[in-house]
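Hi P.,

Sorry for the delay on this. The queue was packed all week, but I finally got your sequence through. Input first:
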Amino acid sequence: MEHEREINFYAEEAKESGGPVLEIGFNAGEVSFRIAQWPSAIPSVVLECSKDTVAVTHRRKEELFFHRRIAVLKGQMDQFCILVLPLWDTLPRTAVGSAAQGNINCTVYNFLASGKDGEKSGEILEVKRENLVFQEGLRWSLLEKNLWLPLFHATLTMAFPLIIIPFGGFQRLLSVKDQRNCLDDCRRHLADGGRLIFDISDEPECKLPSRKVVVRYEIEKRLQLCGFRIEKLYGDFDRRPSWVGNKQIWIVSKK
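Then the structure:
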């Protein structure tokens, strides 16, 4: 299978994280489908920008009966806001937090794409209670951008212990602004102690040692400016040193 080594790498990281996992990309949720097959049934949210790819991923999920294991949402990787609405009438603050235990069924949706063009706005996903968090400032930051937000689920978001952008997806963001927007959104959805992992391929001109150093310095600087610290940098999916392979696999966490 194409990308088999890559899928295995990200699947191993997902297993270590315990989930839920946010997979951002352009490959129809390949990593999410891999981890959904396991007995541990790690839940995941797949964010795809293509309406056709979303439809294909939905159909595949239904055929494999991965209900409540995978939520498929449409949205742009440089502008997303994933909110949740628990399937009960009210949600007391005491029911959500680090001390809360057990799973709960929620409606998960991308607020910035919800209800547009007649698209399905939400997906049912079973998640741990400790992955539901209140973000007090989120409501007001969205309102400042002139985005209407229902108050009854204004501040409840998902905190992901792992966010992945596989298959070179981050390279599709061609401007520095789009890359920083993506990193900012990822950081906002990352749980404390969680990690963001993405990979890029060295372009032909980047195979010169001097150019590779410059590119890596630019990415590292961008990550630091967006509030991340570098944990690991691999050169390929076999976890070889960064200066050996023709990949850059970045593993970062919040400062």
